[in-house]
Structure formats: structure tokens, C-alpha cells
């Protein structure tokens, strides 16, 4: 497969204005999912931020939903909307991200985008302020504590149910392994979680003593319900936990869009493995689905646009094993036969690829090819195992290729002394 003859279908990607063809192709789509090939790359965060800014300013998008925990991201949401009781500085909000890997959201790149969002929101009324929410399922204990504390003040009757639910889970709290905990979980706990969600959902409209308080209660309850399913699936030692997690993220996304109304337009930030359609990868053969596939299946009539990211070489922030100290690692050159190597061979510059069915580029990239996926745990010495067999033009609607990338900037580090690092990849 030679791509050198397809340059007319491959656009330059250096300045913000180079996103014009992408914005044109997105058109009136209500769902735009923006990926990343790693959780620790500066350029993925900054380009996603620039795309998101333009979608918000030019196309009226309503919120950004990310692969992060609901409670922590809801504090970012409160901060960008300048709600009462929020800290003066975004760094004070992001430092509360305690669950490993903290660098995914507690970084200078996210801080810069959050500051932009807050500035943009200053000119909007409360109802129309742009939100920032977490979609993930991991915050079991945090969500439970938030619900109990909130309901004690707002709804003592439902608070009693929340306390019983918390007490049911308490014996497992000190266990280091969620998997082990859920092997012993009693059916009683599961039933009470479902009942709690039902009660909260019925009363959310009564909980709006401050903006989105009811939404916060409902989504924390949803985390409890699906976290129970997730860790039960983890205990089975099969792939079903992946499906539970991605289904939860889509259920959360749907709850958010319902809350914001029928004219809502949403932006999602997640890893390529979540937002790229699983049916165009070898995930499908394992019985796995993901966010991109589910959103396409459920909302195609409203317009769904999936954007993947990748790079040829550089550096990345990751850990040697789960829970390990994060560090800056070399990102090796893309291997032979990969989409990264083929795009580098065309020319060592950044590129925007737009896939439109019937074009030569679409046809050439509908066959399987290796596509790098770097997780929060990464071993660059076992590089071939990091590639996912993908039909690129079916997995995504567009692809942003960055020839050389660098690791992002975790918030607790102060590069160049006390200066905030440059968080934009272009001269703006």
C-alpha cells in the first residue's frame, strides 16, 4: 500500500486554521469523539483542545466529556462555570486527582484548556455555560461518600438507603484488590445499589439547590451501580469488564445529553481504543465493543464523527507497571508496516487525513494495518505488542498524525523552574 500518490487527500496540519477542512467535514454532527494514541502526549491534548475550542465557538457544542472519574471531573466542571466555593486557581482543583494515573488530567495542558473554558463561560448565563464531565466507572468509594454526605443534607429518607449501601460495601473497602472484594460481594449490596439509583433518579429535580446538584447525585449513583458490575466482571478473568466499562461511559454520556436537552452537542476525549470503532479492529473477534461503536450505533441519525490520533516517534509519560511512578519514556519510531511508518514515509510533517467513502485514500486504508496504542503502562522495548490491527478509514472518520511528539507536563512538576510550560503546539 503506497500513500505517496495520495497527497491530494492528505492535508497539512501545522496551524489552527489547518483544522478548517476537519470542521467542514464535521458539519452538523452532534457527537464528536476525539482520541489519543497515549494518555501521556502533549500534542494530543493540545490539538484536542484547539478542535474543542472551535467546536464550542463556531458550532455551539455544549460540553466536553472525558475518560476520567466523575467526582474529580465534576470539580473541574464547577470551576470552569465559576460556581460558589471553587478555588481561585485551577491547579488547586487538579491536584485533587489522586487515583493513579494522576497525570492524565492533572497536567498543564488540561489546566490551560480549563482556564480557556472559564474565560469563555464568563460571557454566558449559567444555563449555557460549557461543561466538563468525567465518564469513567472507577470512583466507587468517592462516589459513595459524596452521595451519603449530600443526601444527609438534602434527603434524609434516601440518605438512610445510601448509608445502608455504604455499610454493605464497607468490609471490602480496605482490600487492595477490587476483584477479590467483588468475589465475596453479597447479592444484598447489589440490590441496594440499584434501589439507590432508582430513588435518586426519581428525585433529582428536588436536589437542585445549586446548579447541577441533582445531576451530580444521579451520576454518582450510576457509578455505584456500574462499578459493581465492572468489578464483578473483573473477577471472572475474561474480557467482559471492558464491555461493562465502555457501556457505562456511553450510559453516562446519554444521561448528560438528556439532561442538557435535545439540541445538545457533545465532545468526547478518550483513548483511541475507546473512540475508534471496535468493529474495525481485532477487538470485534473477541466480542468487545467500545464507546465509538456504541455511539455510532445509537446516534448515527444525529451525526457522529470519530477522530483518531497517532505519531511516529518522540517521548511519552507512562509507568513501567500499574501504580508505578510516572516517567518520561522514549517513543520508538513506528514499526515497519504500521500506519505511523507509512505516514512518516510520505513526509516528516504533521498531517490531517479525512476519510470519505469512495475516495482512493479511504479504499487504501480500509485494509488492516498496525496502529500503535500506548497505555498508562508502557514498555517501549516490547513495541510490537503495542500495535492494534485496524482498518483505519473504517475505525475513524478523520486522523491527525503528528510526526514527532513529546510527553505532556504533569501538574506537580515545574518545568523551567517555576514557569508554566508552553501548552500550544503552534504560534498563536
From TrEMBL:
InterPro entries hit by this protein: Emycin_Estase (IPR007815), Hydrolase/PRTase-associated (IPR052036), UCP036794_erythomycin (IPR014622)
GO BP, sorted A to Z: response to antibiotic
Family annotation (Pfam families): Erythro_esteras
Entry superkingdom: Bacteria
PANTHER family named in the record: ESTERASE, PUTATIVE (AFU_ORTHOLOGUE AFUA_1G05850)-RELATED
UniProt-recorded name of the protein: Erythromycin esterase family protein
Taxonomic source organism: Salinimicrobium profundisediminis
Amino acid at each position: 500500500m503506497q500513500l505517496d500518490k495520495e497527497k491530494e487527500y492528505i492535508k497539512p496540519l501545522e496551524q489552527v486554521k489547518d483544522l478548517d477542512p476537519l470542521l467542514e467535514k464535521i458539519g452538523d454532527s452532534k457527537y464528536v469523539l476525539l482520541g489519543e494514541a497515549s494518555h501521556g502526549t502533549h500534542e494530543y491534548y493540545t490539538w484536542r483542545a484547539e478542535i474543542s475550542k472551535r467546536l464550542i465557538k463556531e458550532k455551539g457544542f455544549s460540553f466536553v466529556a472525558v475518560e476520567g472519574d466523575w467526582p474529580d471531573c465534576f470539580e473541574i466542571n464547577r470551576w470552569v462555570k465559576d460556581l460558589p466555593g471553587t478555588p481561585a486557581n485551577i491547579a488547586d482543583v487538579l491536584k485533587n486527582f489522586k487515583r493513579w494515573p494522576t497525570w492524565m488530567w492533572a497536567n498543564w495542558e488540561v489546566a490551560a484548556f480549563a482556564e480557556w473554558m472559564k474565560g469563555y463561560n464568563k460571557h454566558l448565563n449559567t444555563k449555557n455555560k460549557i461543561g466538563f464531565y468525567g465518564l469513567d466507572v472507577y470512583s466507587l468509594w468517592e462516589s459513595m461518600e459524596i452521595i451519603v454526605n449530600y443526601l444527609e443534607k438534602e434527603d434524609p429518607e434516601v440518605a438512610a438507603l445510601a448509608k445502608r449501601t455504604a455499610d454493605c460495601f464497607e468490609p471490602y473497602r480496605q482490600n487492595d484488590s477490587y476483584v477479590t472484594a467483588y468475589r465475596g460481594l453479597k447479592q444484598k449490596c447489589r440490590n441496594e445499589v440499584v434501589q439507590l439509583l432508582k430513588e435518586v433518579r426519581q428525585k433529582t429535580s428536588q436536589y437542585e439547590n445549586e446548579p447541577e446538584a441533582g445531576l451530580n447525585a444521579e451520576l454518582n449513583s450510576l457509578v455505584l451501580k456500574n462499578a459493581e458490575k465492572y468489578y464483578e466482571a473483573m473477577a471472572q478473568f475474561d474480557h467482559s469488564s471492558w464491555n461493562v466499562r465502555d457501556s457505562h461511559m456511553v450510559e453516562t454520556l446519554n444521561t448528560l445529553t438528556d439532561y442538557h436537552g435535545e439540541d445538545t452537542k457533545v465532545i468526547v476525549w478518550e483513548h483511541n481504543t475507546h473512540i475508534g470503532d471496535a468493529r474495525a479492529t481485532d477487538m470485534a473477534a473477541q466480542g468487545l465493543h467500545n464507546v465509538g461503536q456504541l455511539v455510532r450505533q445509537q446516534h448515527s441519525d444525529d451525526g457522529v464523527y470519530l477522530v483518531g490520533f497517532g505519531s511516529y516517534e518522540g517521548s511519552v509519560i507512562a509507568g513501567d507497571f500499574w501504580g508505578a511512578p510516572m516517567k518520561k519514556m522514549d517513543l520508538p519510531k513506528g514499526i515497519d508496516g504500521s500506519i505511523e511508518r507509512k505516514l512518516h514515509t510520505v513526509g516528516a510533517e504533521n498531517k490531517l487525513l479525512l476519510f470519505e467513502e469512495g475516495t482512493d485514500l479511504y479504499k487504501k486504508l480500509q485494509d488492516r494495518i498496525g496502529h500503535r496504542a500506548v497505555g498508562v503502562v508502557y514498555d517501549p522495548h516490547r513495541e510490537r505488542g503495542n500495535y492494534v490491527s485496524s482498518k483505519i478509514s473504517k475505525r475513524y472518520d478523520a486522523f491527525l498524525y503528528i510526526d514527532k511528539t513529546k510527553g505532556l507536563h504533569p501538574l506537580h512538576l515545574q518545568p523551567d523552574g517555576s514557569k508554566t510550560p508552553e501548552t500550544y503546539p503552534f504560534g498563536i
